[in-house]
């Protein structure tokens, strides 16, 4: 285990910090927060210096995870898509990984820190989409949401729009068939073209600058969206879907998302520290891309989805039905038709992969994975009682490495 006692960015000068903040204060530079760079390397570990944040409060005794480091895990070999055969240790050393932890049967078997300390927080980016997925799942389990209902059964402000035809399950699976996608527009310019619906949504949320006096009311932007194909046909990745689910969580629970998350999860997993979720200028939550926590708390969160949930919680948080739906409700055909599905299939020598309930990849053996901008990742294998969590400042085929770890003899000899 490599545990740094220093943070690469903790000792930079106050002048440099102010220069970073001045750069991102300029509206034209704000979209760059999603790009890995020397400046975002600092900000991704200090998002509260750049964005408004709502605290996700912990409570109770910390769930101390046992440690039994297996040196062989660092020597597991896999084939990197562009660099050939590498070991886990070589990957961690050579690429801009900030920290990684592997937990099996509730025990830490591998842990490494490079640019951050164990108590530092790091942004999850889109791994935060799984938060909304499980919160919706909890509301389903409580009988407060029906997955066959349409979105407007819960969000009246979207009534008399195309959202009246979108089921909750379709939006969870990112198979709505609507326009304004994030990566699947033919011209692939959703993040740069002010005429695109996704760009206009990002402006209305305060993520992108409003240089062209775009429509600034988020509900009105969503009401302009159109159907381009039947629902359920194509996995079209879109943070708009997650944000609409966030609004459903707040509407149905009657609580801010950060408080509901704290009540249902963070105060019940023995988290070592408070987390925080960014909110936009209007106070709307943005867990679709901006959730920050320590690495071990990220792993504790992952353990909720594993058989070792009782190592962090006195009560089972994730319903069995949620895991079942996640593992069996995907569709192989729709996966390969979308940008992200093709990207995942291009990384791995496997074809039986689907997406489901905001998770990016569900494998035939029941493992599931979520990635975030810049290389963040959470990999859960219920059958192996395994959780792998990592933070990066620039992704470099970490999924391939995680999958190789899950399939390795070093891991599977413990589950025979």
UniProtKB/TrEMBL annotation:
It comes from the Bacteria. SUPFAM superfamilies: beta-lactamase/transpeptidase-like. Residues 99-403 form the Beta-lactamase-related domain. InterPro entries: Beta-lactam-related, Beta-lactam/transpept-like, Diverse_Enzym_Activities. Pfam families: Beta-lactamase. PANTHER family: BETA-LACTAMASE-RELATED, BETA-LACTAMASE-RELATED DOMAIN-CONTAINING PROTEIN. This is Beta-lactamase-related domain-containing protein.
